[in-house]
Write a structure and sequence with these properties.
This protein is an all-alpha fold. The protein has one domain. α1 crosses α7, α2 crosses α7 and α10 runs antiparallel to α12.
Length: 486
């Protein structure tokens, strides 16, 4: 199959998944905000950030290593099944072992939220098995099944969680709903999708081999988790749960901004880029990489500019009046979107080029930088300091990733991208100092000008749009051909 068509099909299924995931997720998040208020949402942000750290070593990075290997398309089902269940076994027993110190430590340091912590730990315990199945299906470009699973799971959370929160507005109700959804997802994969079953498989020699190869991925995951979530944990101890609640609301919009580029496009093209890199035709790989670079830059830039202008409106529409501090935090934090999207593309490139150790060293440095900046900025500026720390660290992260990745730098393309960013920055500063940054008419005009400028500077074109549209068009053509045959 043509690589662009395959990428387009992945994107199309991913689009359906992300639409349901983000819309349902946002609706439920807003509903939680009104039921739990800022302190309860602060506890939610802390619990979901804190628990995930405990699962970093669940398979010593073996699952991430296998995802890259499966994406190359040269593995047979028996070999995949064996490695799949070896990793499943590792995750099962390591998570059970980790639960003991998790329970003891949190009994003493986080007793006020101990039950939510335990419930979310159990939820994540089942979620890591679903994630393993997702990795396999996405690696072989079966995005259809992960999409259906996502819709079923999120719908279950909304329905069950909404009912439980209405009856008893407690944080525990949210995690009980999530736990129910995990059971439903496992049942769907086990009985309808996977060509093999979840089962315990002990193979110490292969387990050791996978662990050794997975260690760089483990360390990368460890530091990327610290890098991505340490700000909320530090806010909890250096500020209060209200600050965490405001900050987590800003983070929610950052996640929403990443629907197209981060959650949809980049995961869809990773298997395609990996396959092209392995092939003999390096010209096709380079062409598709630059196409991806232009697309993710244009999408993330427009999303960043839009949220900067619409931040006050978005926060006032979706959250109570007490969440007004979220506006400034969002305007700062959204800068991470364009930086982080480009970082993720270059990080994927390093992974494809088998340079995960370099990626690891970079994320270690960026995580340490982020922590150091948080120690300096949070005591002075609270959640705004945490936001600026993340922006600065992400900018450094991007510079290092693109420097160490092997790619033929198109200086003209880089200059065009830099020029657009510079002009936008000057416009924002001018509007800030003239008090017009909240003017939605001016903001909308700036967004439209950006769309036109990106097209005129050839940072996006009609063939980029075709990448998204062709799979849908082909699907309808197949339907009409079937009808003619009948």
């Amino acid at each position: 199959m043509d690589h662009e068509l395959q990428a387009g099909k992945n994107i199309a299924w991913g689009a359906v998944s992300q639409i349901f995931l983000r819309i349902f997720g946002l609706v439920f998040f807003v509903y939680m905000t009104y039921r739990l208020q800022e302190a309860g949402m602060g506890q939610y942000g802390f619990v979901t950030s804190f628990v995930l750290f405990w699962f970093i070593v669940s398979d010593f990075g073996a699952g991430s290593y296998l995802y890259r290997e499966w994406s190359r398309g040269d593995k047979k089902i028996p070999e995949i099944e064996k490695d799949f269940n070896i990793v499943f076994t590792l995750r099962f027993f390591i998570s059970l072992i980790v639960f003991i110190p998790f329970l003891i430590i949190n009994y003493y340091i986080n007793r006020e939220v101990l039950l939510p912590l335990v419930l979310f730990f159990i939820t994540t315990f089942f979620a890591i098995f679903i994630n393993l199945a997702d990795s396999y299906l996405q690696a072989i470009s079966f995005f259809k099944y992960t999409t259906i699973r996502t819709i079923i799971e999120k719908l279950t959370i909304v329905v069950v969680g909404g009912a439980l929160l209405y009856i008893w507005p407690r944080l525990e109700m949210v995690f009980i709903a999530m736990l129910v959804a995990q059971f439903v997802s496992i049942a769907y994969y086990s009985y309808s999708v996977l060509p093999f079953k979840f089962r315990l498989l002990f193979d110490f020699a292969r387990s050791k081999e996978l662990i050794v190869k997975g260690i760089p991925f483990l360390l990368f995951t460890f530091f990327i988790s610290i890098y991505a979530r340490i700000d909320m944990v530090m806010l909890r101890y250096m500020a209060d749960f209200s600050a965490v609640g405001w900050y987590s609301a800003a983070y929610k919009f950052l996640e929403m901004a990443g629907i197209l580029a981060v959650s949809l496009y980049l995961p869809a093209v990773f298997p395609v880029l990996s396959s092209l890199y392995k092939s003999a035709d390096k010209a096709k790989f380079a062409e598709f990489f630059y196409k991806s670079l232009r697309i993710v830059f244009s999408i993330s830039l427009l999303a960043t500019v839009a949220i900067i202008f619409y931040a006050p409106l978005l926060v006032s529409v979706f959250f109570p009046e007490t969440f007004r501090p979220t506006v400034l935090a969002l305007r700062i934090l959204i800068l991470v979107h364009i930086l982080g999207t480009l970082s993720l593309l270059f990080n994927n490139l390093l992974f494809i080029q088998n340079k995960e150790k370099i990626s690891l060293y970079i994320i270690i440095f960026s995580a340490c930088l982020n922590i150091g900046l948080n120690f300096v900025l949070i005591p002075r500026y609270s959640l705004y300091g945490a936001a600026w720390a993340t922006v600065i660290a992400e900018a450094v992260n991007l510079l290092l990733l693109q420097h160490f990745a092997v790619w033929e730098k198109d200086r003209k393309l880089i200059m065009r991208m830099s020029l657009v960013v510079l002009v936008d920055s000057l416009i924002m500063l001018a509007l800030k100092f003239t008090g017009q940054l909240n003017n939605l008419y001016i903001g909308t005009a700036v967004i439209l000008i950006n769309i036109a400028a990106l097209y005129m500077m050839k940072l996006w074109n009609m063939s980029d749009i075709a990448l998204f549209i062709n799979p849908i068009r082909q699907k309808f053509n197949n339907i009409f051909k079937s009808e003619e045959t009948i």
